[in-house]
Amino acid sequence: MTTEKDFQISPIVPEAIAHNSKTLFNYQSLTASIFGVGAGILGLESYIGFLFYLICSIVAALFFYTLRVAPSSIASGKAPFDTSRYFRGALEFWTGGLTGGLAGFILTWTLFYGLVRA
């Protein structure tokens, strides 16, 4: 059992980081599917569709950062774009959605492309 002294020594709680990572993964999976719907309805093909996914994923990560991470980072005096207090690392936060949501993006992209073009 962790004590108050343990939290003072290491204020990062592993359960909270796991919860934050799960929330981020759910957000990235949902937005990847929504981006796939958008790419399919727009009729995007080949590299343009993947470029659409890349740009939308970056915008979604910035949106999530500004709503969830930035206000508490600014209040605590941390450096901008520092996510190490809430997630396992910056790489997980900024690029985790690119690989994690790619399958859902492709699935919904091809589904809606086929529905619109059929």
From TrEMBL:
Belongs to the EMC6 family. Its main location: endoplasmic reticulum. Pfam families: EMC6 (PF07019). It is a multi-pass membrane protein. This is ER membrane protein complex subunit 6. Keywords: Endoplasmic reticulum, Membrane, Transmembrane, Transmembrane helix. Coiled coil: none annotated. The chain crosses the membrane at residues 24-44, 50-70, 91-116. GO terms for cellular component: EMC complex. The keyword Endoplasmic reticulum applies. GO terms for biological process: autophagosome assembly; protein folding in endoplasmic reticulum. It comes from the Eukaryota. It is found in: Endoplasmic reticulum membrane.
